[in-house]
Amino acid sequence: MDAMEVDQITHASPVVRSRHYQLINQKVNLDIGFDQHIKGTSHLTIFPEHPDVKAIVLNARQCRIKNVTINGRKPDSIAYADPCDTLTLHTNASVRQHHVLQEKLGPALISPPEPELVIILPPDLKIERNDEIVVQTASGVKGTTLEPTNTNDAEAAEALADTAVSRYTPLDVFIEFDSIHTRDALHFATGPPGSGRWPHVYSRGGFLPGRTSSLFPCMDSLYYRCTWEISITGPRTVGDALRQMTGGSRSDQDSNKDSHAYEAKEMVFVCPGEITDDVVNKTDPSRRTLSYAITQNVSAQHVGFAIGPFEKVDLATFRDADKLELLQENAAPIVAYCLPGRRAEVENTCLPTTDALDHFAITHAPYPFTSFSYCFVDDHPDRPASFAGLAVCNTRLLYPEAVIDSAQEVTRTLVQALTTQWLGVHIIPKQPEDTWVVLGSAMFLAELFMKDLCGNNEHRFRMKQVSDRICKLDRQRPSIWDMGALLHVDPTEFEFLALKSPLVLYILDRRIAKTIGSPKISINIGKFMSKARNEDLKDNLLSTQDFCRMTEKVLHASVDDFINQWVKGAGCPRFTAEQRFNKKKLVIEMTIRQSQAEDPTDIDLDPEAFMRDVREEVHGVWAAPAQHVFTGAMTIRIHEADGTPYEHIIEIKEAVTKVEVPYNTKYKRLKRSKKQRARNAARAENDDEQEALVYCLGDVLQSEEEIAAWRITEWSEEDEQLMNSESYEWIRLDADFEWVSSTTLRMPGHMYASQLQQDRDVAAQLISIQAIAQYNAGRLISSILLRTMMDQRYFHGIRTAAAQALVRHASNKNGADMIGLFHLRKAFEELHCTVDGDTIMTRPNDFSDQLAYFVKCAIIDAISKVRDDEGVAPRSVKEFLLDKLKFNDNSQNEFSDAHYVSTLLKGLTNALLARGKKPAEEDMEDDLEQLTYWAQEEALERTCLEEIDRYRRMDEWTSSYQNLYSRTALECQARLTRAGIGHFSSLHFLQYARPGNYDMLRCSAFDILASADLFSHGQILQMFVHHMVASASPYVRERLTGAFGKALARRALGYNKPAAAVGGSDALMVDIGAQETDQARRNSVEGAVKALKRELGEHHTLRTALWEALNYPEAGYEDVRAMMEFCQMLYMAEDEGRLSLPLPRYWKMEVVGKGKVKFSRSSNVRSKKLEQWKGKVSSQAAKPKLMLSLGKRQSTSAASPSAQNTPTPPPQAGPATSGPSMKLKLKVGRSSVGKQ
Question: Phi first, then psi: what are they for 1203, rounded to 5°?
Fold first, then answer.
């Protein structure tokens, strides 16, 4: 059937905005071909809420509407406006008309998007009140009498009170369509014939408005939810899919056995929900149809599927028998799908997910959908896409048993995708501003499971790290309340919201636990999950008010102040505390100041966040005002002289809080000496652990031989006396982690050392490490950090932090004599080397102790950062790292060394880059020492370059995990090339960016090309921009767009200014007067964008490449939006257009004969101006009047100056008189000019 004739709609029309009806059910039939052509039907069941409904408005993009009926009748009219149809401008348009495209795409990029399809109801269709209540059930639409006649009917009506009912005539809207461009909704992961890639297709998720409506007509909004019945028709085998791509037939099968086995692989339809039908087409055995139903109300955004030759892995086999008995019928099926050959990786990667599903089902609420599936696919972006009962993940998350580095973060990602099923798909925010509570609750539950899986120390350590990161990021940003409506602005908005929201819930949970004795947030979240499952939560909408009301019930106090500060307010408090012991009053006087309002506002822009700043500027997103005061209770823990910790709760109400904390110890200070510590340690072996004193951590390397061998420095007698004179051991602010804050407590170093050794909380230990790391280089501090690193009883995160802190003490200042470097090398030799006299041999790798492996990598990284007083890496550091890289032996190790080698390569590169400035050749002619030094340095650099290149080549014959060898080696070579060490051309990196290479390797190569002077290489720039829209992989397009944005950011901020080439002239032209301009461009987005337009606005190659990318026929909305953002940054908007007119040509005449003359235009162009004949008019003649007869109307007017240019007839003989009236009738085309 041909496409229906439709009218255009205006988005401002009130018909589009008004919706007085409820979507109840939608049936979708999709016929998916791997030639990327999709056709189907959409059948919507709609219950009017008002008898005056005149139109149905839907979202439908990039499709052709072929037929529409409403209750079996043709609609009165149909109006359809596809935003894609308006993306083309006139022929002579340029990038400077980007604002025109922005205006055209505006309605499609808002959230929710404007509807594109308006269906006017037939005039003979009357919406009347029903005599029966029409009820939508899983089996269809049924009717029941409006007035109950008996008790059973009354009970039935009461049972149906919460179901979807219609008191007016239901509307059945049927739409037949086909889609010709589904890049925004579906991704076809295919390759050219013979590439070996498995063809598959899957739904795409994300925050792009209108993504699902690019596949089929629907109400594409989070808040229009209904039940679904979906039928999908697709190829039955891999061979059938390939033939759809190439246009072949089943008779074209290859006789090769391997090829036949490849093509005979069955295609699996991954469809979450209850499978209702699965049949092979009787007329075409190459096609198969699978039908399924989703009986819970979900939005169109959460309907997804995948088709491919997947292998099914039943993760329920990992379920505990005890949990299975507890769950019984609530034990939801959980499976994973992967491409052939990756079953073992899936089993290893998804091992904890079954336990997580059962944990949430037992602790909080049963799983809300029929089953849950992970589907691992190629080309998918980093963040998993969550649909009802399905999480589509990228195959880059998979890792074998031999890889241990990514295990924890991958598990966290998969568990977060699982909790999103309850909170995010089944339960949604009531309004966009409530996103923080839904997303934060999902992330909070995921962190609680990770706490049970990895331990309390890991959990506390991560919470402290996240808190420190938020304190750095949450400056001049919107609040998490406002950020819920800004997720479509920039991807980092979601990342920040997902980071801060669970931490806000965490500190609220800590405050509740302090007040009532036990945490309650997870219990409250579980109640909402249970309500939604039992249909007690209205429309499954969760609001901030609902959350606060539930919290106040258990807390018996208002949480409005907390919500206003931490949710609706932005920023984090920055505390500076001082204390003094008052012996007369026996109190500790403390002063706590908040200084967050004093943070400078003119800080330099970060190139990593520049694109987010620009997008927020464009969308009018403003930072929340700084909060001068955060209020609430804070716990101060004071470890007094007898070793007893005393907790004191103070109220923070002002910017400056002064308190007097009572001192409890009344007796002489019981300071422990070394001998007392040894006796206590011996007594602890026999006494109860709780009675033993805590002096245990960091007490390694205590013998005299060890102290001498490790060059350890102990506390001096003066230090001991000072410590003995103190009235307390140490003070800790916010001991119960009830604040997300940056705290500076001015406390002596020996108190931080005591806290590091005696406090069992890893958060307190990390605070001590961070404080000690700021002290000047010294032997004593280095010895304390060394003992911390060598004591295996410390949490591994504390040991790695101590290794990083030792870098500061690898200096000659204050008599340190590079003691930090000695301690780091000595620790590595002790832990990982065999010493035989003066010979030190590195032992073969053994990563069976994973905690020791993490410390080993941290030591390597710390050694690579060691610098002398001139900022140059010592030669011994380079030789040490080169030796460990050259003699790395992984033959006896059951685990992969890819990440360890990557750490070595990066460390060696860091050391090579920290070299001194080489003097000119003429300055070293007579300096033999300098000549010898630089000759040795250059020889060492050549050896290091060869070793780095050796690992790059290793991936060519034995592939490392995710090509980590090659990726790291390329990054190192690029950094060394920019520093003038080694010379690798752009072609060296460009060969790895070719299609067909591993995606992560390609992206690394593109990142290298973008980080160099991309805008100086026209052909590379043109290819880079082309792949930003033309690459088949969404992951590659996303990575390239991000890399290009960072390249623009560095140029805008002045970090990548064109300079003299390496090896060229040493002269560098510097505009001294531009220094103030450079500072202005780094402090404001406006100044940076202005500088960017000035420097790149006339770049012809860039302008051409961006315009071609904007007009790329296969580009999706995301791609076009990114290109428009770049154009807005680079070019001023201009309202102009070129008008092309034909050149005037001479006429030629040809005598045909018989009184006929033929006139035609010649090919000769008229180049001279045609002189107009002007008659002689007497100066005494009066001005003639010109009578124009335009159709039926006449106008009389005096001759105007413009009329003087018209040819004047010859004057008649005789005296000059008033000219006669002239009637002139002008006709243009077929109608008179004067016609109205």
Answer: -75, -15
CA distance 178 to 163: 33
* Helical (H) or strand (E) element with 1153: strand 1145-1153
Helix, strand or coil for residue 415?
Answer: helix
| Of 70, 421, 26, residue with least CA distance to 219 | 26
The residues near 1072 (Cβ < 8 Å, ≥ 6 apart) are none
Find residue 140's DSSP bridge partners. 137
Burial class of 609 by CB neighbour count within 10 A (0 to 12, 13 to 18, 19+): middle
1107 closest CA partner among 1034, 1029, 1052: 1029
8-state DSSP, 1151: E
Q: Quick one: residue 62, left, alpha or beta (phi over 0 = left, psi -120 to 50 = alpha)?
A: left
Contact indicator for 386, 417 with CB cutoff of 8 Å: yes
For residue 1113, the number of C-alpha atoms closer than 13 Å in the C-beta half-sphere is 1
What pairing do the DSSP bridges indicate for beta strands 117-120 and 55-58?
A: antiparallel
Tokens, residue 369: 């959908």
Sign of the torsion formed by the C-alpha atoms of 463, 465, 468 and 470: negative
Q: What pLDDT score does 1142 carry?
A: 79
Q: Which spans in 702-761 are helix H?
A: 704-709, 717-725, 749-758
385-424 pLDDT tens trace? 999 999 999 999 999 999 999 999 999 999 999 999 999 9
Residue 1165 and residue 1153 in contact, taking contact as beta carbons nearer than 8 Å: no
Q: Which two tokens stand for residue 247?
A: 């246009």
- Cα–Cα distances (Å) from 430 to 224, 481, 546, in that order, read 12, 13, 10
Work out the number of other CB atoms within 10 angstroms of the CB of residue 765.
28
Token pair in block for residue 823: 């301690």
Q: Nearest-5° angle of CA 324, CA 328, CA 333?
A: 70
**Residues 1122, 614: Cα–Cα separation, whole Å:** 12
**Residue 948, Ramachandran bin (φ over 0: left; ψ between -120 and 50: alpha; else beta):** alpha
Q: How far apart are CA 836 and CA 166, in angstroms?
A: 88
Q: Residues for the chain: how many in total? A: 1236
Is the alpha carbon torsion for 428, 434, 437, 442 positive or negative?
Answer: positive
* φ, ψ of residue 226 in degrees (nearest 5): -160, 175
Name the token pair of 332.
């939801």
Amino acid 1180: pLDDT: 52
Tell me which residue has tokens 């004591």.
791
3-state helix, strand, coil in the chain (%, to 5): 40, 20, 35
C-alpha 29/C-alpha 42 separation (Å) is 7
What would you measure as the largest C-alpha separation in the chain, in angstroms?
A: 144
Positions in the chain short of pLDDT 50: 1-3, 10-18, 138-139, 141-163, 667-675, 678-679, 682-683, 686-694, 1059-1070, 1072-1073, 1189-1224, 1226-1236
Q: What is the CA radius of gyration of the chain?
A: 38
Half-sphere exposure (CA, 13 Å, Cβ side) for 16?
18
Q: β-pairing, 129-137 with 140-145?
A: antiparallel
Secondary structure of residue 1221 in the 3-state scheme: coil
Which residue type, as a one-letter code, is found at position 89? L
The separation between the first and the last C-alpha atoms of the chain, rounded to the nearest angstrom, is 41
The tens digit of pLDDT for each residue in 933-952 reads 889 999 999 999 999 999 99
Q: What is the pLDDT of residue 134?
A: 56
Helices (H) and strands (E) in the chain, counts: 38, 40
**What tokens does 362 get?**
């037992």
Structure tokens at 1131: 């070019």
14 burial via Cβ count (<10 Å: 0-12, 13-18, 19+): exposed
DSSP collapsed to 3 states, 1044-1081: HHHHHHHHHCCCCCCCCCCCCCCCCCCCHHHHHHHHHH
Kindly give the residue spans of alpha helices, DSSP state H, lying in 1097-1193.
1100-1110, 1117-1130
Structural tokens at position 280: 């092979």
3-state SS class at 234: strand
